[in-house]
Amino acid sequence: MEDQTSWKGHTFTLIVFTGIVVLCSIFFILGMLVGRSQGQKLALAASVSAAARADSRLVPREDSKPDLTFFDSVQKTEPSSLEPPPPPPKVELVPEPPAVPSNVLNYQIGALRKSSDADKLLDQLKKKGFRAFMLAPAPDDANPFFRVQVGPFADPIEAEDAKKKLESEGYQPILKK
Questions:
Q1: How far is CA 6 from its chain centroid?
Q2: Is residue 25 included in any domain, yes or no?
Q3: Residue 177 carries which DSSP code?
Q4: Of 50, 94, 117, 139, which one's alpha carbon is 20 to 30 angstroms from that of 126?
Q5: How many independent structural domains does the chain possess?
Q6: What pLDDT, on a 0 to 100 scale, did the predictor assign at position 19?
Q7: 130 vs 19, 94, 151, CA distance in Å?
Q8: 163 near 107, Cβ under 8 Å?
Q9: In a domain, 76, yes or no
Q10: How many angstroms separate the CA atoms of 121 and 109, rounded?
Q11: Does residue 5 sit within a domain?
């Protein structure tokens, strides 16, 4: 007797094969779609950079002379080893900025955790006519606070007037030296 195989015996194999074909088709289509969008992005970036290079070629620069040519390299003379070297260029000293007085006073109005809140407070103070600034926390600070301060005041009388004005506006200024 001969064993005759029928389709019924191979149904499991056919189902697995069909599933693999469908799965591979899905991944192939997804790969094509992703590749096409990436290709379009790369083509757009290449065309933009090519246009930028073309624009830069259109405008000749005055200093676009080639750096080295054979003629220039032959014409250049090297200084003799017996000649003294040229003197170094003179360096002009820049005057130092004026020293900041050591008795400068500032008033701290707030110490806030969010920079957006500190910016709002800073804007309010500036709108009211105060010389305000913000001190950002150090990157490794254990208590990161954005400190909003008014000042600096070198004159104690001016500082006292600013304190009274801040208190009349509803703020509670804290003296910082």
A1: 70
A2: yes
A3: -
A4: 139
A5: 2
A6: 96
A7: 74, 33, 8
A8: yes
A9: no
A10: 9
A11: no
Q: What is the pTM of this model?
A: 0.41
Residue 18 confidence (pLDDT): 94
Residue 167 and residue 110 share a domain: yes
The pLDDT tens digits for 33-89 are 888 878 777 777 777 666 666 555 555 555 555 555 666 666 666 656 667 777 877
Say if residue 54 is in the same domain as residue 111.
no
Which positions ≥6 away from 103 have C-beta within 8 Å? 154, 177
**CB 125 within 8 Å of CB 148:** yes
DSSP 5-54: P-GGGGHHHHHHHHHHHHHHHHHHHHHHHHHHHHHHHHHHHHHHHHHHHH
Q: What is the CATH number of the domain that holds 155?
A: 3.30.70.1070
Residue-range definition of the domain harbouring residue 41: 12-58
